[in-house]
């Protein structure tokens, strides 16, 4: 069962380092530690994961592998727009295409972790 945590962190180097450390723990213990997708800002997150793309991802989480036309029908959307949104989600690694071009979400769980910290608490 694959899991994904989506984070927002402007310091992408620290996010990458933390992800690498998590992977090392997994290798050392032989346990799967999950995967991480980081966006530099909440704005970047929301520009890539629009409401319609989030609906698409949710439908794919509940479904087996399905074709673009069937997905468009289930969502009540135009096939061309679903295809365009799927391309973005494939590029992000949130969904995958099989050899026929059908779509699937490889994750059983997706967790979004966004933290806002006041300047007062950092002082």
What does this structure look like?
The protein is α/β, with parallel strands linked by helices. It is 51% helix and 19% strand. It has helices spanning 12-29, 42-48, 51-62, 68-75, 79-92, 119-122, and strands at residues 2-8, 35-39, 96-97, 103-104, 107-113. The protein is globular and about 45 Å long.
Residues in β-strands, percent: 15-25%
Largest sheet, in brief, is: 3 strands, parallel
Order of helices and strands: EHEHHHHEEEH
Summarize model confidence as the mean pLDDT: 85
Number of strands: 5
- Whole-Å distance between the termini? 40 Å
Q: So what's the overall shape?
A: globular
**Which spans of ≥5 residues are poorly predicted at pLDDT below 50?**
none
**What is the alpha-carbon Rg in Å?**
17 Å
Main sheet: which strands, in order across?
2-1-5
Q: Structural class, from helix and strand content? A: alpha/beta
| Helical fraction | 40-55%
User: Tally the helices: what do you get?
Assistant: 6
């Amino acid at each position: 069962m694959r899991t994904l945590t989506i984070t927002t962190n402007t310091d992408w180097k620290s996010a990458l380092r933390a992800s690498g450390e998590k992977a090392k723990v997994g290798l050392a213990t032989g346990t799967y530690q999950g995967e991480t997708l980081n966006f530099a800002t909440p704005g970047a997150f929301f520009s890539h994961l629009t409401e319609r793309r989030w609906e698409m991802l949710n439908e794919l989480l509940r479904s087996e592998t399905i074709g673009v036309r069937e997905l468009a029908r289930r969502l009540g959307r135009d096939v061309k727009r679903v295809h365009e949104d799927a391309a973005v989600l494939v590029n992000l690694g949130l969904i995958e295409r099989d050899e026929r071009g059908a779509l699937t979400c490889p994750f059983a769980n997706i967790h979004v972790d966004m933290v806002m910290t006041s300047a007062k608490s950092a002082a």
